[in-house]
Amino acid sequence: MVKLVFPKDFLWGTATASYQIEGAWNEDGKGESTWDRFSHTPGAIYQNQNGDVACDHYHRYEEDVKLMAEIGLKAYRFSISWPRIFPEGRGKINPKGVSFYERLINKLLEKNIKPAITLYHWDLPQALEDKGGWLNRDTAKYFSEYASFIFYKFGDMVPIWITLNEPFVNAFLGYAWGWHAPGKKDLKGAFVAGHNLLLAHGLAVQAYKEGGYNGNIGITINVAAVYPYTNSEEDLRAVQVQDAFENRWFIEPIFRKKYPEVIWKILEKNYLSFDFPISDFDIISSPIDFLGINYYTRNIVAHDESNKFLGLKRIEGPNERTEMGWEIYPDGLYDILIQLYRDYKIPIYITENGAAYNDKLENGKVEDNKRIEYLREHIKRAYFAIRDGVDLRGYFIWSLMDNFEWAHGYSKRFGIIYVDYDTQKRILKDSAYFYKKVIEENGIEE
Ligand SMILES: OC[C@@H]1[C@@H](O)[C@H](O)[C@@H](O)c2nc(CNc3ccccc3)cn21
Asked: Catalytic activity, per the record (predicted)?
């Protein structure tokens, strides 16, 4: 067996998000978020579940950091709940909210675990949503005020900053399709929200750079490698359309100061347009230090004239799928890393990669062999991408622990730590011990 050894300082981590693990939804002065409101809306979430308690991480963070140290994590990616800091989105600060994150960061640093903070992972203060949310351009300005405060408090303690998590998902699932908070269904709204999210990102990057902090700042984009169903001209064109729509929509404005042509075509075909100052791209393209990508699966597409939106259809792949129904395709991680590094020549972190399985706790153990296999194969592709020239800096498993999986509630388990929600007991799955070994050896057997 050949040992694949990663670069010396490669960052092995796990990822979570505030609304998915913290609970304490209305405790210690926290303001309501759009996800509090959405998950309290009957019918929005599987079995009307919500994140009111979740993994109770707000009260159990010390135990959770001890488990991270037991696994040997080098870094931990988590998000800050904006309304826990600014209950109304701006203005009055909630000192108990600030104190929680200060204690969490200090606990991580005590254990030599690098904090990697996502400023926004979809839980917008409801008070701002009541003023239009991401449809209101002012929300971008309020985001930069929030970000500036967080940088002021923690900027010298935290080396890795992510402005936004997956603006595409937030804009499209939240504003066009209604599957996520705030549950709106307005196609034009998705484009306006997407633009204001990018503006927020750029303003926060400018605030970070103006603050002279010595860490690195970037953004996290969801990506799925795209392949043609056949090698026909039409299917090859469909690949370009899907790649632009799902992968490049939020990357091109940052690196090329423009939207992909496909985005304008979608707006035109739907008789939509929206106005913004072209100078926004000067803000949006403020230089970042790294690109974060969340990779889970691939897309296979074929030309389909009857699909009036993108003119294509998605074809089911032939390989095994996870509990989310997502095809397992590790080569897609290699391919997308090569493509993105070729096009933008920027350091990359894999800020999320993982799999949901129907884990069973038996005799105090969780033998999640399928998840171990999924992680092993994707870690191998990460190694091959580095071997072939990609400046890949780190890998964060989604997720540290089972948690609230948005519209799926608690029905999908992604964690390498099992959470018994009745007792809030944490149990390391076999995948946690697998990852402990990968980190100890800084690599994996081929
Ligand atoms: O679904 C697993 C995770 C989720 O829990 C994270 O909060 C989120 O950052 C995340 N993004 C993806 C990939 N993108 C995606 C695509 C369609 C719907 C939802 C997410 C998966 N995940």
From this structure: Hydrolysis of terminal, non-reducing beta-D-glucosyl residues with release of beta-D-glucose
Atom of ligand 1 at shortest distance to CA of 17?
7
Q: How many whole angstroms from 222 Cα to the centroid of ligand 1?
A: 8
- pTM beyond 0.95: the answer is yes
Q: Is-contact 161 208, C-beta < 8 A?
A: yes
What is the ipTM, given to two decimal places? Answer: 0.97
Give residue ranges with CB within 6 A of ligand 1: 17, 20, 165-166, 169, 173, 222, 294, 296, 352, 398, 405, 414
**How does pLDDT run across 85-97, given as a tens digit for each residue?**
999 999 999 999 9
For the segment 229-273, what is each residue's pLDDT rounded down to a tens digit? 999 999 999 999 999 999 999 999 999 999 999 889 888 888 888
User: Which member of 166, 246, 252, 327 is catalytic?
Assistant: 166
- Name the residue ranges covered by the structural domains of the chain: 3-445
Nearest alpha carbon, ligand 1 atom 19: 169
Fold (topology level) of 3-445 = TIM Barrel (3.20.20)
Cβ-count burial of 305 within 10 angstroms (0-12 exposed, 13-18 middle, 19+ buried)? exposed
